[in-house]
Amino acid sequence: MMHATTRSLTLSWLALVVLTLTGALLGEAGQPGFWVTLSVAVMMAVKGRLVIDQFLELGNAHTSIRALMRLYANVIPALVMITYLFGPQIARLTAL
């Protein structure tokens, strides 16, 4: 019989594999656009949360540490979406 922690890690690892392969498939076959970018951003957030909670073992860490790491895992996908939606404007603002 599989221990609960081992089962949880195994399921998390399988989810990470599925999300990674799905992202690779989207990258190869998907047409660039809002829905593909949103899907990738959501997958990034889910993968970040899984890694933080399961593999970095921060699920039971001090509330502030856990919150900062979870915030980081959500800021990066949000930046991906902001870049998709406002890329040309950001490029103009940051051009020399």
What does this structure look like?
83% of the residues lie in helices and 0% in strands. The model has no long low-confidence stretch (mean pLDDT 91). It has 3 helices and no strands. It has one domain. It has 96 residues and is mainly alpha-helical. 2% of the residues are buried. The radius of gyration is 17 Å and the shape is flat. Helix 1 packs antiparallel against helix 2 and helix 2 runs antiparallel to helix 3.
Q: Percentage of helical residues?
A: over 70%
Q: How would you classify the helix and strand content by structural class?
A: mainly alpha
Query: Which word captures the global form?
Result: flat
Number of domains: 1
Q: Poorly predicted ranges (pLDDT <50, ≥5 residues)?
A: none
Mean pLDDT: 91
Offer a few descriptive terms.
96 residues; flat
Characterize this entry briefly.
The chain has 96 residues and is mainly alpha-helical. The protein is 83% helix and 0% strand.
Topology summary:
Layout: H1 4-29, H2 34-55, H3 63-94
